[in-house]
Write a structure and sequence with these properties.
Radius of gyration of chain B: 13 Å
Distance between the termini of chain B: 34 Å
Number of helices of chain A: 0
Largest sheet of chain B: 7 strands, mixed
Structural class of chain A: mainly beta
Shape of chain B: globular
Oligomer: heterodimer
Number of strands of chain A: 11
Number of helices of chain B: 0
Distance between the termini of chain A: 40 Å
Order of helices and strands of chain B: EEEEEEEEEEE
Chain lengths: 119, 105
C-alpha cells in the first residue's frame, strides 16, 4: 500500500528540540521530492520545508529557516525534520507530503504528527 | 514571496448547491496551482493540479479554472462529503497556501 506515516511528535518546552520522521512505503521513495507542511490550531496549512529526491536541494519557509533542518535517508525510505530552538508558534500538526514533480503539487499526504510547544 | 488570497473564508451552502471558491495570487503563477480538500481531523487530499487537471479518483463535480493571478474551484452539486475546508496552493516559486475556505451547512 502506498502510504506515509509520520512519528516523533510530542509535548515540549520552548527552546527544546525534536526530530520528526516520515516513513514511506509502496513506492520508489528516491524518485519523489518530499515536503513538510503544518497546520497550527485555528490556522490554515503552512508549507515548512521541501527536499528533492536526491536530497541535494532543500528549501525552507522564512518562519523556520535556521532552526529546522530537512533531510532524507533513501536507503531507509524515511524523511526527517530536525526541529531546534522550538517556539510556541511552532505548535501544530505536522504532515509529510510527496511530490511527483519538483517543484510541484503534493499528491500523497500522511496523517500527521502533533507537536506542542508550551511552558 | 507570492501571497495567495482565497475568498470567501467561510461559505454556507446546502446539498445540491453549486459552489465557487476564488483564489488570487499576488503575482502571475501561470497555471501552477493546486486545490486540496481537508475534512476535519483528516489529512489534506489533492483535488486538482495545474489549475484544471482533476486528480485520479476525484469526482467530476469538482473542476478548476484560471491562469495568471485568478483561479476558481467549482463544485457543481454539493454532496454531504464535500463539507470541508478547501485550500489553493501555488508552486511556481516555492510553495504557498491560501488561508482556506470552510464550506459549511
Amino acid at each position: 500500500e502506498v502510504q506515509l506515516l509520520e512519528s516523533g511528535g510530542g509535548l515540549l518546552q520552548p527552546g527544546g528540540s525534536l526530530r520528526l520522521s516520515c516513513a514511506a512505503s509502496g513506492f520508489t521513495f528516491s524518485n519523489y521530492a518530499m515536503s513538510w507542511v503544518r497546520l497550527a490550531p485555528g490556522k490554515g496549512l503552512e508549507w515548512v520545508s521541501s527536499i528533492s529526491g536526491s536530497g541535494n536541494s532543500v528549501y525552507y519557509a522564512d518562519s523556520v529557516r535556521g532552526h529546522f533542518t530537512i533531510s532524507r535517508d533513501n536507503s531507509k525510505t524515511t524523511l526527517y525534520l530536525q526541529m531546534n530552538s522550538l517556539r510556541t508558534e511552532d505548535t501544530a500538526l505536522y504532515y509529510c507530503a510527496r511530490s511527483g514533480w519538483f517543484p510541484g503539487w503534493f499528491d500523497l499526504w500522511g496523517q500527521g504528527t502533533p507537536v506542542t510547544v508550551s511552558s | 514571496d507570492i501571497q495567495m488570497t482565497q475568498s470567501p473564508s467561510t461559505l454556507s451552502a446546502s446539498v445540491g448547491d453549486r459552489v465557487t471558491i476564488t483564489c488570487r495570487a499576488s503575482q502571475s503563477i501561470s497555471g501552477w496551482l493546486a486545490w486540496y480538500q481537508q475534512e476535519s481531523g483528516k489529512a489534506p487530499k489533492l483535488l486538482i493540479y495545474k489549475a484544471s487537471t482533476l486528480e485520479n479518483g476525484v469526482p467530476s463535480r469538482f473542476s478548476g479554472s484560471g491562469s495568471g493571478t485568478e483561479f476558481t474551484l467549482t463544485i457543481s452539486s454539493l454532496q454531504p462529503d464535500d463539507f470541508a475546508t478547501y485550500y489553493c496552493q501555488q508552486y511556481k516559486t516555492y510553495w504557498t497556501f491560501g488561508q482556506g475556505t470552510k464550506v459549511e451547512i
